[in-house]
């Protein structure tokens, strides 16, 4: 992207160039917090060395790249270019990205991102091979617990959003009820958030109802806010400010995975056949429990796992027992920090991995015939382990 060109509202569909690599999705880097400590967040969380970033076709950031709009956001975008070229970075804004900017003036955010050579992906469909990624902040309806007023009041009291994000109110009555000013800037309200949430939800529903450009291709959704309480963790009075219950949308759509951030809890579930996956990095001083997912294993989407091309489907090994044995072997290797030796795998698994990991981030250990254990686990997990229980059907 030529930063000297006139910056106009971005396209609603963006084709991600296919360089034979993967798509990475992560959220809540909050880079300013790490910069204050003089630390590197990707190194801090073990993502710098476990993944070969040069094989990434696209990095989608699902919100809260920095902590405020302005120079810190520019610095954060520059930081990411250590790992991924600027034109392979796609920014879905989170609530923190609107701090010190108006909710109704996204052009300022878009201009800053585009001027850095990256892409602004608000209400945008990204296409990579036969995959589509539907991206939007989403926000929330504050109705998760059925008491919208209580949730709005709780959020006003405890969230900085309502001090840090503003909105222009046209014709708003200010102080004197007889004096109507033509233009005034006010702090954002929960009602403003709900209005934008409805707009984003309507956009998602329309896109999900539109036939896939690749017919049998996969659909992913990437939002900042959460779509279902099953991946929220412990529920409290603030949870409705982070998650909505979009069960109806999930039941009516064919979505492979719905990625989100905001909560900083790396939890997952399956709802109506869709995996709900949090991919938050979070603040440097946060603790992550044993029940949370390994970020390196869930934030990379290898299109090559399912397709050699847009029309040729890869088949999983038919011998499930052998596959499960190989999966257990990979888990033991991961626990002890050693690579998975190719000659220890069954022939069917070897053949599968040769194809499945051809375009993965870290396909082969440089020093010999072995794979990184994390890559093998990711590649085999869908076939060798059951999906988490579907909270909207099936056995609990």
Automatic annotation (TrEMBL):
Tree of life domain: Bacteria
A Pfam short name: Metallophos
GO molecular function per UniProt: hydrolase activity
Boundaries of every Calcineurin-like phosphoesterase domain copy: 22-265
PANTHER family: SER/THR PROTEIN PHOSPHATASE SUPERFAMILY (AFU_ORTHOLOGUE AFUA_1G14840) (PTHR37844), SER_THR PROTEIN PHOSPHATASE SUPERFAMILY (AFU_ORTHOLOGUE AFUA_1G14840) (PTHR37844:SF2)
Protein name per UniProt: Calcineurin-like phosphoesterase domain-containing protein
Organism: Qingshengfaniella alkalisoli
């Amino acid at each position: 992207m030529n930063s000297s060109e006139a910056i106009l509202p971005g396209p609603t569909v963006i084709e991600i160039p296919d360089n034979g690599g993967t798509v990475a999705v992560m959220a809540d880097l909050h880079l300013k917090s790490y910069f204050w400590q003089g630390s590197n967040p990707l190194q801090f969380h073990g993502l710098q060395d476990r993944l070969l970033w040069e094989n990434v076709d696209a990095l989608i950031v699902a919100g809260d790249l920095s902590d405020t709009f302005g120079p810190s956001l520019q610095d954060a975008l520059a930081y990411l270019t250590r790992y991924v070229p600027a034109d392979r970075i796609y920014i879905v804004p989170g609530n923190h990205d609107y701090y010190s900017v108006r909710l109704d003036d996204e052009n300022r955010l878009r201009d800053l991102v585009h001027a850095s050579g990256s892409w602004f992906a608000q209400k945008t469909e990204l296409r990579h091979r036969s995959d589509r990624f539907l991206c939007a902040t989403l926000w929330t309806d504050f109705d998760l617990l059925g008491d919208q007023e209580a949730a709005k009041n709780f959020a006003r009291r405890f969230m900085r959003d309502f001090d840090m994000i503003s909105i222009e109110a046209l014709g708003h009555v200010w102080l004197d009820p007889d004096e109507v000013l033509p233009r005034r800037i006010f702090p954002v309200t929960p009602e403003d958030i709900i209005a934008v949430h409805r707009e984003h939800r309507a956009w998602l529903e329309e896109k999900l109802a539109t036939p896939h450009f690749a017919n049998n291709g996969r659909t992913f959704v990437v939002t900042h806010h959460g779509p279902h309480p099953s991946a929220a963790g412990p529920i409290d009075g603030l949870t409705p400010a982070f998650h909505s219950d979009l069960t109806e949308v999930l039941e009516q759509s064919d979505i492979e995975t719905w990625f989100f951030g905001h909560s900083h809890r790396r939890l997952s579930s399956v709802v109506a056949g869709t995996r709900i996956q949090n991919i938050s990095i979070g603040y440097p001083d946060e603790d992550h429990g044993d029940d949370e997912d390994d970020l390196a294993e869930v934030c990379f989407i290898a299109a090559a796992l399912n397709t050699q091309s847009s029309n040729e489907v890869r088949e999983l090994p038919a011998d499930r027992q052998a596959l499960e044995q190989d999966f257990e072997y990979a888990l033991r290797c991961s626990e002890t920090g050693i690579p998975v030796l190719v000659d220890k795998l069954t022939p069917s698994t070897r053949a599968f991995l040769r194809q499945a990991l051809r375009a993965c981030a870290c396909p082969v250990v440089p020093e010999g015939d072995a794979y990184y254990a994390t890559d093998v686990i990711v590649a085999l997990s869908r076939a060798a382990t059951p999906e988490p229980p579907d909270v909207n059907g099936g056995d609990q």
